[in-house]
Amino acid sequence: xxxxxxxxxxxxxxxxxxxxxxxxxxxxxxxxxxxxxxxxxxxxxxxxxxxxxxxxxxxxxxxxxxxxxxxxxxxxxxxxxxxxxxxxxxxxxxxxxxxxxxxxxxxxxxxxxxxxxxxxxxxxxxx
Length: 127
Fold this sequence. Notes:
Blueprint: E1 3-6, H1 20-26, H2 31-43, E2 50-51, H3 57-61, E3 66-70, H4 85-90, E4 94-98, H5 115-126
Parallel strand pairs: 1-2, 1-3, 3-4
C-alpha cells in the first residue's frame, strides 16, 4: 500500500516567502504539528505526498492507497470536525490515525466531544 499524509504536511514549501501569520495558519496554529508530521513522514520512508482534509475525494485517491492522519489533539469541545463528514464518507481509501488525543484543562476534567467529531471518528474507524 502507498501511504500519504492526510491533513498535514511534513514541510512548508516556500515558507520563506510567506508572512508568519500565513505560515502559522498552515500548520494549524501549532508549530508542533509540523514536527509531528515530519516525524510521521520520516517513519514511513520520507517524501510522502500530502493534502488537506477538505480536498476533493477523487483527487485524494490519486495520492495513494492509505491516508495517514496525524491526530495529536482532535478531541475536545474546541473543535467540531463534523464539517468533514460528507467528504470523508466519499473517500475510497483506507485511513489510519496516529496519536488521537484530547484537550482538557487538567487530568480531572471531563472532555466534551461534539457529535460531529464523534461521527467523524466513526467514519475513520470504518475506513
